[in-house]
Structures are given as structure tokens and as C-alpha cells.
DNA sequence: CTTTTTGATAAAAACGTTTTTATTGACTCT
DNA sequence: AGAGTCAATAAAAACGTTTTTATCAAAAAG
């Protein structure tokens, strides 16, 4: 029992192929009886159009592709969740391609499996690939990089601004000696957050001190060790506050402080970035800066669809972070001595 | 500048279409020079085959589809992560379709966008749809239901066994009066866990008491209220241990116990199911039963690919849970009086 | 020296659609 | 009454591939 095609329906209904196609696609040229008859036959045979044939001919799929190297972690599922909701709303399907093989990515994009693409992937797609996509008039929105390159869209978080705002918040609590725990220096977001931190210090004319910039690599353990070794070496110069490159790092920092007998936030304020799921449950609950992930997903789909409909040119957008104040930060108090 | 097709490559290289196709697909009938020449031309023109044309003709896509109504939460991303890794390993691509529209799901499945499908969706696909898929020889693996129906695969967690093992563990700690906090009685997993719990009680000849079965609806608040009202009504008959339908519920239970001055685990043991991300960070860290999500994903892909290659018939598999002992459970102690 | 075989390439058919164009027969004009 | 419109349907072309079949010259076989 082979797959039922439009041909089978035509034969069974005693009409031509084109008539069946018209009936199925609701083109209004057929007599109501013929149409009804054909639909009934199609139903009876359980006919389902072959999407590849359909797509090959019509060139449009009503499908958007999301290309990513990973879906691990809350960032991705929040993103996918919001994108798929918005797709539903706009009458598109969402198709997530998880692969690390650039070849696969490019051939799916250029091979027209989807009407437009959202791209998030750390490695791989370079200027040349983007040029190829532009040449083919592929509509794309990037989530992980700024594109000066016109024609393509991008929606990224303003990490610089987040770093800046976080630092300003700590300053507003009365803290003057604010340390920064750096993430990975090759990552764009990481660097931007630090830049924002430095800018805020400069703006408030607080000294930028070399030893106040620690290296935590976005990991709990590394940060724990880095902070501990700082406290060992400079017991007399403990910062008022630590701004960690992300929440994981903030957690390591808090552990290290606790192990040296400092109370957070009474003795030292600590904050991170990302507002990961466990942040509100941590002890103390973490003050952090949250990225509006759902908004990013929603805007990406919106923008892409408008690009596809030629209502909008690709453009770059930046999203502001959202300060979330919880228990790990506190106005500056006179610190009790180290136990 | 329209899309480059195989025709353009043929014209440019001065050969026929079929020759180009042979060159590109490495069919070994061409002279090395011709082949090299064609490949060079294709490269120069940035030719990328149209996947729809290709697929339409050859009928195979080397793509697997994962159909789901949601990707929210850790379960899904762990699942997708493991599936995509296994796909990579086996030379397939993974394609996640997120939609609540059954129509979309069915037309993508039957419309041959993918070589095989993994299905997880709570509502929608019924016996009739499955019959249609079988008729079309679609290869499918279900993750959310047992399929007695031969021909299709399914890989589910053995929730009955998990409930049984969890209860046995609590009994092994010396607990005799074990309460169960039920989830949602329409959900398969929820019911199965409770059945396992009851079976263990029966096996050890412990009395099954009506009041010991509370209703928590898998929510923190509902459970909190349910447990609290139990403690208010039966202050003299506090269980030795609570087995909550999931970790969220366990958290609510612990809060309620604390509010009545009971210490967990010294006074009462509490455990849940799922091992959610915050379980190890909770206070106390939760004892729970973990489902092997990554294993489920891996097995699903494996099974599906073997079905596609006709090496295996669809079959049902069950995965055992994994007991994770943390701080919320303890051997039975003589309980101090209520404060 | 003709007939076969072989090797390399080209032509044509096929996949399942949609879309464009053609073909009817019935109706409406003047 | 003949030409022109119209409604309904059919036929054919097209989408971009792969695959099957055909072509044709050169080499091998007799």
C-alpha cells in the first residue's frame, strides 16, 4: 500500500489533477458539488499532500528555522518557548535544528527548507556565509552577534548596559570598593559586562584597581578559588561588593566569603547576571540582572516575519537588562571585623 | 540574481544536468577530469542543492523529527540535548517541531518531511492518527505513552516501579507510617507512582490509611496547604515520612512541616520525584527519584534509526528510575514532641 | 573488417505538487 | 445566427532534483 498522492485522488474522484489541487487549496473556481465530492474522496483515502512536492513548486513553507549548536539550559528553552508561541500567533511553524555541523546548517538554510531563519551558534558562520545568504536573499535574524552588515536582523542583549546598571546599583547602595569577577574573555557578553562595570566606576570617579578584577571563568569552582585566594592575600582590603560575571560565579563567590566568615549581604554585597532558575532559591537569594529572553525570542520572530513579508529591512536591536534585587545585596554597613 | 540550480552549473560547465548530479553525488562513472571540473564550477557559483527537489526525488532526508507541544523546562532540554547528540552520532539531523496544532503535526509527519519521528505531546494524536501513520509505514517512537500497538516504538519511564522503589527505601529507613501526596489523577505518571506506593505498602504489610493520601496537585502551594491542614486536624497522627508526587510538591510539604515546627529529616523524612535542578540546593537537599532523561532520548533515537533501517520492529521499553539520596530523608529516630 | 563491449556523457522520465494555459459547451450579445 | 464571454474543467508546464535509459565513439573481440 503505497503513499496516496494527488493522482490517486484524481483518479478515484474521476477528475483531473489540477481540479483536485484547486479543490484542496480552496481556489474558488470549482462548482460546489465537484469540490465537495473531491474533498470527500480525499478524506476517504486519507490523502495528505507531500510537503516536498508542494514546497518545491510553491517555494514557500510557512516554516521558520531556528539553528543552534545547543539547546542546553534555561536560556534556550525559554527562547524556544517564546519563539514558538509567537510563530503560532503569526501562522508559522517553528523548526529547531540542533547541530554543530556548519555544513548542515548552511545547506538547510540555502536549500530552502524554511522561509526564514533565526541563528544562534557560537562557532562557524562567518562573513562569507552571510554574504552567500544575502546573495540568495535569505531572511535571517541573528541572536548572538551584532550585525553592522545591513540586510540581516539581529537582536542581542545590551550587556554593556547591564554591567553599567548593575555597578550603578551597587554604588547607589553606598559601596565604593567594588570588585569584578570576570568570565571568559573571549566571549562578547563577558567583555561587555566588564566594560560597563568600568564605565560606571569612571563615571562616579571611583578608582579602578587592578586587584579588584578577578578571573572566575563563569564557573562556581574557579570563582570560589579566585575569591578565596584574594581574601587570603589581601585580608585588609576586602571589597564592599562583588559583581560577578554571572550567577554561577556569584554563587562561588558567596561560598568563598562564607568560608572566610563574611556574611552576605551584611558584610559584603554580591550580585550576578542572568537570573538563573535557582537564583531565587539560593541562600541568600541572588540579586542579579535578568535578560528578557522571552522578549528576545518574540522580537526575533516578529522581525523575521516582517522581513519575509518585505515590510521591514533587517536591522539590529538591543535589549536592556532588568535589575532583580534580592537578598544578596544590601546598603553598606560598617563591617564587623573578621572572625 | 536568482537561486543557482543544477541547471546553471551544467550550462556553465558545458555538460548535462545528469553529469553534474553524478559528479556532485560522487557516483563513480565520470572521468576524473570532468568531475573535478564540475566540482570547481559548482564551488565557484556557490551552488547548494535545493533540498526539496532532492528529497522529492529520493524520498529520504536523513532527518528525524521531534514533535512536541512544549519545550519548557529541564525535562525537554535534557531530552532534546541527548537526542541531538545521538542523531549527530548516527549521521542524522534533528528537527524539533514545537506546535500545539495536531493538524500541523500530522501533515508534517505524513507529508514526509522527515525519515522518522519521535512524538511527545499530551493532547491530540489518537488511535486513528496512529493507524494512518502505520498505514503509511511511518516509523515513530512515542515518549509519553505505552503503545500496546505493535509496529510503533515507545520508551517511557516506569513510574510504577519508581513509586514502589521510593516507598521501599523509606520503609528500609524504618518508617512505618508513610503518607503519599498525590499529583494530578488524570496523569498517567502520577497514578502509576501512587500505585507503586500502594503496592510496596501491601508487600510489607503496612496498613494503607485513607487520610495518609493527600492531594497536592504537583504544586508547591496546594501541597503546603494540604499538609498544613492535615497537621492541624491530626496533630497526634503525624506520619514518619511523606512521599510527594514530585519534587515541587516535596518542597511545599517541607515548608508546611517547618511551619509546624517539625524538622526535616530528623522528625519526618520527605522525598519527591524528578530530581529537578534545584533539588540539590534546597534546604534540606531533596531525596528523590531521578528519571534517566538523557538515556530516554538516546534510546529513542537509537530505536527509531534501527526501525528506519528495518533492523528492528517497533517495541515498548521501560526505563527504571534512579534513587538519589540527599538530606531530606533519614533513618527513623524517636521523635521529639511538637514544640 | 565487422560486431560487441565498454566508457563516458547526454537525454528523458520521474518524484508530487501548483500554476498557467487550453479546451470545452453553454450563454449572452447585437 | 454567428461572434464573443463565461464557467467549469482538463491538459500541460514547471519547480530542482535523481535515476533510468539512450547515444556515441573508441576499444576489444571475433
TrEMBL record, chains A, B:
SUPFAM superfamilies: lambda repressor-like DNA-binding domains, Periplasmic binding protein-like I. Residues 4-58 form the HTH lacI-type domain. InterPro entries: HTH_LacI (IPR000843), LacI/GalR-like_sensor (IPR046335), Lambda_DNA-bd_dom_sf (IPR010982), Peripla_BP_I (IPR028082). It comes from the Bacteria. Keywords: DNA-binding, Transcription, Transcription regulation. The keyword Transcription applies. Pfam families: LacI, Peripla_BP_3. This is LacI family purine nucleotide synthesis repressor. It comes from Paenibacillus silagei.
